[in-house]
Design a protein that fits this description.
By secondary structure, this protein is mainly alpha-helical. The protein has 3 domains: about 200 residues, Up-down Bundle (Growth Hormone, Chain: A), CATH 1.20.1250.20; about 50 residues; about 240 residues, MFS general substrate transporter like domains (Growth Hormone, Chain: A, Up-down Bundle). The protein has 20 helices and 2 strands. It has a two-stranded antiparallel sheet with strand order 1-2. Helix 1 packs across helix 6, helix 3 runs antiparallel to helix 17 and helix 11 packs across helix 17. It is globular, with a radius of gyration of 22 Å.
Length: about 525
């Protein structure tokens, strides 16, 4: 076993520092810019659309290219591709920190997302090939998974703290960390054998451009007007590219998005719910940050610390949800979480310029955190219920893409609504310190209207969840199989014993690998 796996004992060491550290940086950078947006807006003169693109450019590139990134690792060797992703991410972070205007910053953020999309799937795959099955790999998977949760919250706190010094440090700090990760990766990771499979490059490029075009139209429509020729043309091109993407995927020998994944109605409902839940979570951070900094005059550090109760409530709810989902139907558990989230969002829409952190703001932060935490556990498990363990990786990647791409689309729509609401009440662009009380009230109403939009999106996600018919037994098997997959066990079907093991899964033969468009024998 020592010949096959470089690490056979404890996971703690340079390998997990490299892989876990990159995962932490990638997750952190998804939210780290949220609390810096008011400073960015003031110093770089960001437009209303540009403010949204600072966040969306990263998420679009990350989500749109993630599936291709995983295939690159399989084709050219995972260590080599991981190092390339780290390099692109690090150089792009330097460019972000040195940005002198809106265009340079947004472009650099897109390259950051592309680097993350290359590194993220290969990092998880390298965990499986670096650490031997058993205690070493279990420890590594636990550490790697923890980096995602820590990064989501730490991004807000670290972003707030570094923004107190300068917004540039939220990006420049990645440079020495990226160099350290690259050095450790070279020394501690072993290259994997490449698999010669054609890459669906056209699908990745066309799909990403399609989502970007639609997002651009929604974002710019709020400021330029919905009848602006540029908005109409780019939006139409985005729709046409999406149709072209579907055509490419249907004909591709090795598609990034196999249509067989959508033959099960329960799983389609899961993907829709994940897309919408991703939109809600992506909208929350920046608009709560806008409200507390621009309306309540919190400093960036105070804003970051204000999110700590969210993290605590989130963690408690996630633990309770993991227990409830194997006892009750997943749609009920998800529905409870969504109802709690909606109550917190509706409470938040009532906040105004005279709000206090305690109790006005801390109450919705805790309630929303608890509601979101109750939802995030069942949805990924539903995505992999009733499938072979060898299909868990592709399905998890697709679910992650849906969650990631839901964010920019949701943020674009929320931004359009918030801007329209502010202007309808007499508000105008400008620095909050220079606004009159009525203008500040209008700005506050615009921000809280984004929370109302989140409540509507969450309600639609709840409706989609009603169509999820996976049983608690299937979810329990999915939970167990996810653990087995992380430990290198393969070949079983993620479902109850009996008919699911012996017969078709999602209406297809168990021995048919639709992910790669060919048939294969079951593992012994």
């Amino acid at each position: 076993m020592s010949d096959r796996y470089p690490v056979t004992g404890r996971a703690l060491g340079p390998a997990i520092v490299a892989l876990g550290g990159m995962q932490l940086m990638m997750t952190l950078d998804g939210t780290v810019a949220a609390l810096a947006l008011p400073r960015l807006e003031a110093e770089l003169g960001l437009s209303e659309a540009g403010r949204a693109w600072v966040l969306s450019a990263y998420a679009l590139a990350f989500g749109g290219l993630m599936l291709l990134g995983g295939r690159l690792g399989d084709t050219f060797g995972r260590k080599r591709v991981f190092l390339a992703g780290v390099g692109v991410f690090t150089v792009a972070s330097l460019a972000c920190g040195l940005a002198v205007g809106e265009l340079t910053l947004v472009t650099a953020r897109a390259f950051q997302g592309a680097g993350a999309a290359i590194a993220a799937p290969t990092a998880l795959a390298l965990v499986a090939t670096t650490f031997a099955p058993g205690p070493a790999r279990n420890q590594a998977v636990a550490i790697f998974a923890a980096m995602t949760g820590i990064g989501s919250v730490a991004g807000l706190i670290v972003g707030g703290a570094l923004t107190e010094l300068s917004w540039r440090w939220i990006f420049l700090i990645n440079v020495p960390v990226g160099v350290l990760i690259a050095v450790l990766a070279v020394a501690s990771l072993r290259e994997t054998l490449p698999e010669r499979r054609p890459l669906d490059v056209p699908g990745a490029i066309v799909g990403t451009l399609a989502i970007t075009g639609v997002t651009f139209a929604i974002t710019e429509g709020a400021t330029r007007g919905w009848v602006d020729p540029t908005v109409i043309v780019v939006g139409a091109i985005g729709v046409l590219l999406f149709v072209a993407f579907l055509t490419i995927e249907r004909r591709a020998e090795f598609p990034l998005l196999p249509f067989s994944l959508f033959t099960n109605r329960s799983r389609v409902a899961v993907f829709v719910a994940i897309l919408l839940a991703g939109a809600v979570m992506f909208i929350l951070a920046p608009y709560v940050a806008f409200f507390v900094q621009n309306v309540l005059a919190f400093s960036p550090l105070q804003s970051g610390l204000a999110f700590i109760p969210f993290a605590g409530a989130f963690g408690v709810a996630a633990f309770l949800s993991s227990k409830a989902v194997v006892r009750f139907p997943a749609r009920y558990v998800i529905g409870v979480g969504i109802l709690i989230t909606i109550m917190g969002l509706l409470y938040g829409t009532q906040l105004g310029v005279d709000a206090q952190y305690v109790p006005d703001l801390v109450v919705p932060i805790i309630v929303i955190g608890f509601g979101v935490g109750f939802v995030v556990v069942p949805l990924p498990l539903c995505a992999i219920a009733g499938v072979r363990e060898s299909e868990i990786g592709p399905l998890t990647a697709v679910a992650t893409v849906f969650q990631t791409l839901g964010g920019p689309l949701g943020l674009a729509a929320a931004g359009a609504l918030a801007t329209a609401r502010t202007r309808s009440l007499g508000g105008a662009p400008g620095h909050p310190q220079d606004m009159t009380p009525p203008q500040l009230e209008a700005l506050s109403a615009g921000y809280t209207s984004a929370l109302g939009f989140c409540a509507i999106v969450a309600a639609v996600a709840g409706i989609a969840a009603l169509f999820i018919r996976f049983t608690p037994q299937q979810i329990a098997f999915a939970q167990e199989a996810q653990s087995h997959a992380d430990s290198g066990v393969d070949g079983a079907v993620v479902g109850p014993a009996g008919p699911v093991d012996a017969g078709p899964v999602d209406g297809r033969s168990v021995g048919e690998d639709h992910q790669f468009g060919r048939r294969r024998d079951l593992d012994p």
